[in-house]
Structures are given as structure tokens and as C-alpha cells.
Write a structure and sequence with these properties.
The complex is a heterodimer of chains A (about 350) and B (about 325). Chain A is α/β, with parallel strands linked by helices. Chain A has 12 helices and 12 strands. Chain A has 2 domains: about 240 residues, P-loop containing nucleotide triphosphate hydrolases (Rossmann fold, 3-Layer(aba) Sandwich); about 70 residues, no CATH class. In chain A, the strands form 2 sheets. Chain A has an 8-stranded mixed sheet with strand order 6-7-8-3-9-10-12-11, sandwiched between helices. Chain B has 12 helices and no strands. The longest helix of chain B has about 40 residues. The chains are: A alpha/beta (about 350), B mainly alpha (about 325). Chains A and B meet through helix 3, helix 4 and helix 7 of A and helix 9 and helix 10 of B.
Chain lengths: ~350, ~325
């Protein structure tokens, strides 16, 4: 597959800032009610997404990346207690707009796909119905026209003989085809932003690569911005131009993918990259990050990574802000200037990054 | 994918029904023989001598071994003959034909009432779980389950029939002669049976609807921008309809059983009254005939429910 030149990727990322952003998330925090009281799942989430940009949100399970995606679409679970900050999307603050406004945006301007395409599709309706439904709810076009557009969309997501598949039920399709159907239903209204939450985790490796390629191509041809939520750095390297790293409910680094891979600024990002199995020397010990993520009920002051960080010093217990590191990069570590952290490219020379980070 | 034709499904289900019919009628027959009392004594009249009773037994074949008697009854059934009452000599099929419409009307009214009230209650409760309306519905449903049908029936008779004189307290009218009068007579017994059904439908529907609403695909529907009412009434109801059909088929079985007591309270000449009278008088052909008819109804209802489930859920391969 073709990989964009690093220079071009960087300029894409630089264009993302400022007023040209499609979506600006500022100070986003989500709280939940639990039996232990109010639970701050995420806080101080800041990032921008430019029109047509492909951004990867990475971090380990429980870091708040999925909840961030769901809160943008305001699809929060019942025990949701409150939202702080703002989500400015094309002039509308999604954090405060009415339910009716939000419903008109969902599916039409912000679409979402999920991890498990089998359970994400209604089992008792045909896939054609479920794709056309998005279109009919938002535009009210006639049934025949919706069907024609659905057939067209099925073709665009690479489903062979769509005339036969359109009347199939989800259980009659393979996992990869189901995810293609999900993508078709998400993109049929031509949204400006597609939030994809672990879209390939439940799929076979070969199918994963096809779906990622499809997402990248569709995003490029229709100028739909992609917010790809994943724990898989390889997926980000293959698909995205920018990478936002989250840890314990905070954004800790925001940089162009190539920059982050070559020279991460946050010790956690560096640790993540170092623990990729196919980057460590054959036969050697696989580096891992010691310790565990702090409990949500007992968050430390200041840097949340300091207990596991090999570079922690006195001063890390002070509140950490997301600092501008220049070149469109941001990092939540006050020592970023003095640290020289290893990235994914330490011992792999200068071959194309995506090819190395992605699975062999 | 090849789906089996409905005709084949029905055929195989009827074959499966045979052992059920055999087992049910055999057990009832055995129970009737185990309990004390003998119809021959009744038939022989007051102060009959032992020899007279023995004679009667011989005439009706009651002196034969238990299994032979059952076999003889079964042999007649196989030829389409439910034999006749020992007491009145009337053909059992005729008695059932007369009683069955009365019972059917009560069950039909009870089922309609239970669904018309239970479905909205279940949906309302599921929209906001643990909300005020949910708690109210759950309270009403608990009452519906807890209140015995015969007690409710007597309260209804006392208040609505005797005090207010709105509806008749006893008896039944033929639906084909006067539909309005027939429904008026069947309404109170229908309500008495429907109370439990309403509670059952509301509770079960709430449960299965909550499961559907918390599913991943409902989240997808929200993400597509669908309104709550569209999600609920279009996707929610189609997804729970399989459970609903199952609930209904179980409910019909339960309601049929409940008519036995309710018909006694309202003095309705239905299947329930027929089987009670047959059992008290040890008139076993009557009892056997009614059990046979009820088993057929139950099997038919289950079969219809299965076919409906297969029609709404594409994953069911009959």
C-alpha cells in the first residue's frame, strides 16, 4: 500500500489547528454515577479535527477513548452524570445542544461504527433496510430512490453482487461484510465526521487490512474526517495522519503520526511504542511498561503516569498542562524538552513507517 | 438457504404431538382410577345390591383390567370416536362441541384484554427503568400475579353484577345467536382471568424490551439519528415479538387451565365445568375427551406461535 510522505503528513496535521477545524474539543470531561459516588472518567480532553483529516485515538483499555467518542455523538450510557467543556462541531456545541439538534446531526453529519458488526446490526431487518433507514430518516426520500442509493453505497464499500446482498439478513453475511454494511449505513448520508470505535478488532487479520484500506479510501474520496479509536498502534500507523494518545482519562500527547512514532515526547507514548512485539529484537526480552494504570477512584495528583514513569522526578506531582511543543505537537509532560525518548524507529532504519509498525 | 415448508413443519409437529396426547390421557385415566368412588354405584341407583353393581360393571366393561379399559378407549379415539358419557349416554364429542365455544370466548376475551393492557404497560415500564411509571407498573403487575382469579371473580360478581347490575353474574349465551349477549356474559370471567395475563405480559415484555434497548444494535440506531419512538415501535417491537408470541402461547395454556375454576364461579357450561362434573361423577369418557380436546388446543396454539416466530425472525430455521 502507498504511504504518504512524512512531510506531507506533517503539513496535514499542522493545518488542523485554529479556526479551520471541523471539530474543536475543549476541556471535555465525562462523569458517571456509580455506587461509589460520582466517577470522573475523563477530564481536560482537548483536540481538534480538520475536515477530511484522519486522527487516531490510542491508549489502553479503560483510558477513556471509547467514552470520548461516544460523548461526541452524545450516546452515553444511562449512568452518565454530566459533561464538562465544549465540543464545537461546525459552529454547534454538541455538549450543550438540544436532543433534537443532536438527533439531526447523528447519522447525517457525524456517523459512528462499532467494534462488533454482528451485534451492532439489528438481526431481524435486512441490511438494505438498515442502510436505507439512515437516509430515509434524515432526508425522507422515496423508497425506490433510497434503494437505488443503498445499492450504490453497497458497491462503494466493496460488496460483490449488491443486488443479491441487499435483501440478506446480518446473520447471512461474514464478519467483514457486516462491517462493510455498517460503513455503508454510516456513510450513506455523506457525513463530515466518521467515528470508528475499534472497527477491525473483531475481524480476521486479512479482513482488517481491507476494512482499514476502505476507511482510508472513503475518507479521502468523500472528504469525511475519520476519528479512529483503537488500542492498536499498527492500525493508526496504517490509517491515520495524526495520533492522539490518551492515558487514565487525559490526552497526554497529540502529534502527527510520523513524529510520534519517530520521537515520542511523552514517556507513556514511548513505552507503548517500545512494547510493540514486531519492533523488539528477535529473541530479546519484550519491553513493557511496569506497574498498572491508577484506579479511577484513587487518581494521583499531577502526572497520572508518574508512578510507572522511569523519568519521574520531584515536580511531577504538580498539575500537568497540555503544552505546545511546536510544529503542531502537544504533550502533557513538563520535562518533554529535556527528555530524549526512544520511538518505534530506534533499530529499524528508515524503511516506510507504516509497513514496519503494522503487522508483518 | 433452504427453509422447510410450513406444511412439513406442521406435519412433523403433529407427529411429535402424539406421545403428548398419549401421556396426558393415560395419566388422567390412571388418576381417575386411583381416586376412590365408582360410577357403577351411581349408575346402579340407591340401595343397589352388590350383584347389581357387578352386573352394571360388566355391562359397561368396568370390570376389565385397567390397561384394557384404556386401550379400548384409545382404540375408539383412533377411529375418530370419543365414545359416550356413561351417565347420560350422550356422545362426548357433542358435549364438547356444546361447551367449547363458551370456554373459547372467555379465553379470547381474556387474551385480548391482557394484551391490550399488558403491552402498553410493559413498553411504558421499559422506557424509563426504575422511574415512577415503571414502579407503578411493577406494583400493578405484582397485584395481578398475587390476586387469585376466583377471588377477583367473586368480587366482580358482587360489585359489578349484584350491586351495579351492569353485567350478568352467571351463565352463558351462544355467540352465534346473540354476539352482544354472549360477550356480556363472558366479560366478567374474561376480566377475572385477564388480570394475571396482563401482569405476566407487562412483566415479561418489560424484561425482553429492556434487553433489546440495551443491545449494541439499538446504540447503532441512536447513532444513525433515529427517534426513540421509531426505535421502540419499529425495531424494539419486532425484536421482542418472538418473545411475545412465546408469552402468548404459554398464557393461552394457563388461561385454559384457569377456566376450570372460573367457569365454576360463574356457572358457565364450558369445558371447565364439563371436566369438573365428569371427574366428580367418575364419568371417565367425559374427562378423557376434554383432556384430549385441551391437549389438541395447546399443541395447536404452540404450533401457531412457532410459525409466527419463524415468520418474524429470519434466524429461526423452523
Amino acid at each position: 500500500m502507498q504511504t504518504a510522505e512524512p512531510a506531507q503528513r506533517r503539513s496535514d496535521a499542522a493545518a488542523a489547528g485554529g479556526s479551520s477545524a471541523l471539530m474543536s474539543v475543549r476541556g471535555l470531561g465525562i462523569r458517571f454515577k456509580t455506587s461509589h459516588g460520582i466517577w470522573q472518567a475523563t477530564r481536560k480532553i482537548d483536540f481538534d479535527i480538520a475536515p477530511g483529516e484522519r486522527v487516531g485515538i490510542v491508549g489502553e483499555s479503560g483510558c477513556g477513548k471509547t467514552i470520548t467518542g461516544l460523548s461526541i455523538a452524545r450516546l452515553l450510557p444511562n449512568n452518565f452524570a454530566g459533561l464538562d467543556g465544549s465540543i464545537l462541531f461546525d459552529g454547534v456545541d454538541l455538549a450543550t445542544c438540544s436532543v433534537r439538534e443532536m438527533r439531526a446531526i447523528r447519522g447525517r453529519r457525524i456517523a459512528m461504527i462499532f467494534q462488533e458488526p454482528m451485534s451492532a446490526l439489528d438481526p431481524v431487518f435486512t441490511v438494505g433496510h438498515q442502510i436505507a433507514e439512515t437516509l430515509r430518516v434524515h432526508t425522507g426520500i422515496a423508497k425506490e430512490e433510497a434503494r437505488a442509493k443503498t445499492l450504490d453505497m453497497l458497491r462503494r464499500v466493496g460488496i460483490a453482487s449488491p443486488e443479491r446482498r441487499i435483501d440478506d439478513y446480518p446473520h447471512q453475511l461474514s464478519g467483514g461484510m457486516r462491517q462493510r454494511v455498517m460503513i455503508a449505513a454510516a456513510l450513506i448520508c455523506g457525513p463530515q465526521l466518521l467515528i470508528a470505535d475499534e472497527p477491525t478488532t473483531a475481524l480476521d487479520v486479512t479482513v482488517q487490512a481491507q476494512i482499514l484500506q476502505l476507511l482510508r479510501d472513503l475518507s479521502a474520496t468523500s472528504n469525511t474526517a475519520l476519528m479512529l479509536i483503537t488500542h492498536d498502534l499498527g492500525v493508526v500507523a496504517e490509517t491515520c495522519t495524526r495520533m492522539i494518545t490518551m492515558y487514565a482519562g487525559e490526552v497526554i500527547e497529540d502529534a502527527a503520526v510520523d513524529d510520534a512514532l519517530v520521537r515520542p515526547l511523552h514517556p507513556y507514548t514511548s513505552g507503548l511504542l517500545r512494547s510493540l512485539p514486531h519492533l523488539s529484537p528477535r529473541g530479546g526480552k519484550l519491553p513493557s511498561i511496569p506497574g498498572r494504570v491508577p484506579s479511577i477512584l484513587d487518581m494521583p495528583n499531577g502526572c497520572r503516569f508518574k508512578a510507572r514513569c522511569p523519568h519521574a522526578v520531584a515536580g511531577c506531582e504538580a498539575e500537568q498542562e497540555l503544552c505546545d511543543a511546536g510544529g503542531g505537537r502537544k504533550v502533557r509532560c513538563w520535562r518533554f524538552r529535556e527528555l530524549e525518548l526512544p520511538g518505534a524507529l530506534q533499530h529499524l532504519g528508515s524503511a516506510p513507517i507504516a509497513a514496519m509498525v503494522s503487522r508483518p | 438457504m433452504a427453509r422447510r415448508s410450513p406444511a412439513r413443519v406442521i406435519g412433523s409437529r403433529l407427529l411429535q404431538a402424539l406421545p403428548v396426547i398419549l401421556l396426558a390421557t393415560f395419566m388422567v385415566f390412571a388418576l381417575l382410577k386411583l381416586v376412590p368412588g365408582d360410577i357403577a354405584v351411581t349408575l346402579a341407583g340407591d340401595n343397589a345390591s352388590d350383584t347389581r353393581i357387578a352386573e352394571i360393571k360388566k355391562i359397561y366393561g368396568l370390570d376389565r383390567p385397567f390397561l384394557v379399559q384404556y386401550g379400548a378407549w384409545l382404540g375408539k379415539v383412533a377411529q375418530g370416536d370419543l365414545s359416550q358419557s356413561l351417565l347420560t349416554g350422550e356422545k362426548v364429542a357433542t358435549s364438547i362441541g356444546r361447551a367449547f365455544p363458551n370456554t373459547l370466548l372467555i379465553v379470547a376475551i381474556a387474551l385480548v384484554l391482557a394484551l391490550v393492557t399488558g403491552i402498553p404497560m410493559g413498553v411504558i415500564a421499559a422506557i424509563k427503568p426504575n422511574g415512577l411509571l415503571d414502579k407503578l407498573v411493577s406494583m400493578i403487575a405484582s397485584l395481578g400475579v398475587a390476586i387469585p382469579g376466583f377471588w377477583l371473580a367473586m368480587i366482580l360478581v358482587a360489585e359489578i353484577s349484584l350491586k351495579l347490575n351492569w353485567l350478568p353474574a352467571t351463565g352463558a349465551k351462544s355467540f352465534s345467536v346473540s354476539p352482544v349477549e354472549a360477550v356480556r356474559h363472558a366479560l366478567l370471567p374474561g376480566i377475572a382471568i385477564a388480570a394475571y395475563g396482563m401482569a405476566d405480559v407487562a412483566r415479561q415484555l418489560r424484561g425482553s424490551l429492556l434487553e433489546v434497548l440495551s443491545s449494541q444494535y439499538v446504540r447503532t440506531l441512536h447513532a444513525k439519528g433515529l427517534s426513540m419512538s421509531r426505535i421502540l415501535w419499529q425495531h424494539g417491537l419486532k425484536n421482542v415479538s418472538v418473545n411475545l408470541f412465546t408469552i402468548i402461547s404459554l398464557l393461552v395454556n394457563r388461561m385454559l387451565a384457569a377456566t376450570v375454576v372460573i367457569e365454576a364461579v360463574f356457572a358457565i357450561p364450558g369445558l371447565g365445568s364439563l371436566i369438573v362434573r365428569g371427574a366428580i361423577q367418575r364419568d371417565f369418557p367425559i374427562v378423557q375427551g376434554v383432556v384430549f380436546a385441551m391437549v389438541i388446543v395447546v399443541i395447536a396454539v404452540n404450533l401457531i406461535a412457532d410459525l409466527l416466530c419463524a415468520a418474524v425472525d429470519p434466524r429461526i430455521e423452523s
